[in-house]
Batch of 4 targets.
Target 1
Amino acid sequence: MPLTMTLEISDEELDHFRSVMHLTRARAARRSPEEISAAARAAVGRLASGAHSPFVANRLCKVKALVGMLEDEEWQLPEPGRTRVLEGLAYIAESQDLVPDDVPVLGLVDDAIMIELVLRELRHELESYEEFDEFRREEAARRSAAGSHKAVYREDWLGLQRRALHDRMRERRERDLERGGPDFELITRL
């Protein structure tokens, strides 16, 4: 029978995670965005092979989406969102973390915590991208079924949706910052 636990992370403990993220971000500054994305993708593959927890597996799927949004030419994630996602992926891409991944049972706990914190920080970017990706698939299928195959129109309908979602993402982030910030200001407070 599985054991369910609630984990409360104190402000002091959050400060520790922030300091780890700060160090990771400093090391990642020497790497290109492509290197960070590739390293994060590889880390997700490595972590997924050892992850048996649905919680961890679900978070790893979300990290794949973060990498996907950076590489998706049709999404065109604007700054500063692009930098924020890269900074969030920097920890995941880092091969040395707080608890070595090969430690049985506990090896992925620090990764799961940090991934959850990164996902909370980047929730608006991730939600907007997932909505864009769903819209793109559904609209492409609808247009294909209707017999509209002209590629020139694709950028038109995708561009309108992309701009609307980028604006909404920015507005939500600004609203969060006006209210005192997101639950965990991992990236913006560094």
Target 2
Amino acid sequence: MTQSPPAKSLPLKLCLALLPLLSPAIPQAGEFPVADKVVIEKAARKLHLFQKGKAFRTFKIALGIRPLGDKKREGDFRTPEGRYVLDTRNSDSEYFLSIRVSYPNSADRREASALGVDPGGAIMIHGQPNEPTRSEAYYRTQDWTNGCIAVSNSDMIDIWLMTGDNTPIEIRP
């Protein structure tokens, strides 16, 4: 005796049948818009991707655990402010993907030197920790980095695909 397929498989079959009709709305490789500038608004906890002067995507971010003010030295847990570029990509970091921000620039180094401190470095845009030590809710609702800019893993995929090497980034207070 042959059994009919379970009723719950019908919605799956329907979705699979409709997928070709939806595929034009799903970007194909090379069809993602590519940002010509990234803007971080620290106070609003937003990262914006810009193309030709217009923001086309916005993402929620987390910052360093001391988010107010500009980064001045190594270990101050602040996210820098200023103009930089996205200069290096790391698909094998401690976090889900990372893109390096070119902090410190020459002005940051001069300022740190005048203060007699190390300006720090390794400021990244990255996803969530590969080995979390806190709850998922914590990472979603708190500023938790050492000075980096953190996003969800799915947002990090989009940012990775929609930025190129040496994309300018402006980090505003």
Target 3
Amino acid sequence: MKQYTLEIACFSAESAFVAAANGAGRIELCEDYSCGGISPSAETAMQVIKQVKVPVFIMIRPRAGNFIYRASELEYMKQQMILFGEMGCAGFVFGALTSENTVDLDACKYLVSSTGSLPCTFHRAFDITPDPGKALENVIACGFSRILTSGGQDTAMAGAAQIRELITRANNRIVIMPGGGVRASNISDLRNVTGAVEYHSAALDKQRDKIDPEEIIALKRNLVL
């Protein structure tokens, strides 16, 4: 029987506690849902890392907007990674692009080398790259452990066929994790189309203002049905 992992994106310590208590297999910790997430504060990260029993991956994104980073921003991101690593986080989530929206090999290799061997996820900046096949190879070359992607579409369900193709191309060299509109209502269909073993959801309530514990429970249940 396949082993599946459900990662929940959490935008506060309170959300992380709810996610961990209701079946999340991993937490992606960040802040500011409205912009897609930025790095959490050191205080929030410390609180979550010390209190939850599941792996906590920290988003490393110093600001909203594009993913083209200056040298000073990359240095700041590196220092964040060192700090969060010392706190005991399980991994990092980030991505860096060039002005052409291709994977910034130099920036990504620089940051991956700063992790102290902790695993890294290339986030949905991947979805705006012009050549997903080439981007896949570049992300692998940089040393990432997984890619969070909606298959270049607005939602993972809309991009399910493309995600399946990425998984085939990856050939077990990297984990491809569907994310973007993943809900209990579609996760089993997404699993059947893509064959992915890891899934990412914010599991927000209908007002999109807080995490929904019942949605997490349903996500986990429907993933293995």
Target 4
Amino acid sequence: MQKEKIILGVDPGTTVMGYGVILCKGNKMELVDLGVVRMEKLENQALKLKKIFEETTALAAKHMPDEFSIEAPFFGKNVQSMLKLGRAQGVSIAAALYRDIPIFEYSPKKIKMSITGNGNASKEQVAKMLQQLLSIKELPKLLDATDGLAAAVCHHFQSGPAGMTSTKYSGWDAFINKNPERASTEKKKK
């Protein structure tokens, strides 16, 4: 019997926070929820952080995830932006800790590599690959949602099914060679 697990993925931000929830049964993934939390109308940083905490704990209460995956902040030149992003990430992590959910953190490059086979893939490329992997009919307008979903899917790929080690691929060709049924499924859909 394959163990089921629910993963909540978050792409932290202080203007828009993206999230995605997947149900994993062995190697199979199913989309449960996908969306964004918008905060551009909130007056100050403290109110935005409060909203992030409240929404993350609400998502955890609604979906009861077994694991929490989050995109790690990247290193940029704008120190103020990095500080705000780090705070947003910290508040999301605190919300998961508050609900006793194990936390896993992945760099943006690791997430992109895991989803597309290219660590420098665009948001659009990641979204399109997720659309195919999870049979998403229509992509959301804000790709922050698919970025949050990508964190969850990356974690699933890294952790593998319960009791198994994750499989690493050297690139797209290696992935297709190991998963020919995925390539043939896509050809049938077209």
